[in-house]
Write a structure and sequence with these properties.
Elements (H helix, E strand, L loop, with lengths): L1 E12 L5 E15 L2 E14 L4 H4 L7 E12 L5 E13 L1
Parallel strand pairs: 3-5
Antiparallel strand pairs: 1-2, 1-4, 2-3, 4-5
InterPro entries: NA-bd_OB-fold, Primosome_PriB/ssb, Prisomal_replication_PriB
GO molecular function: single-stranded DNA binding
Organism: Shewanella frigidimarina
Length: 95
Amino acid sequence: MLSGTITRSRRLDSPSGIAHVVITVEHKSQRQEVEMLRNVYCLIQVVLSGPRFDSVANKLQAGVQVDVEGFLSLQQGRNGQNRLVLHAENVELKT
């Protein structure tokens, strides 16, 4: 699970006709590690696929805070570089 703020959002359809919402989520927190406080930061692309996300798709805009649950997968970009992408299985909008 990852909590954070959406910094970017876009909708697209795959060549096979599957609707996707692709968001970028920024996570910031602090955690204890070996008795020291550590700043935690990440910026990750999240893919929400299929009709089960239709009800929230229009609400997934920059500035919205979300909790996303899913799995990580390696994705190769057009430039040949690999990156980790979170594929959402569940998303909650935080108010």
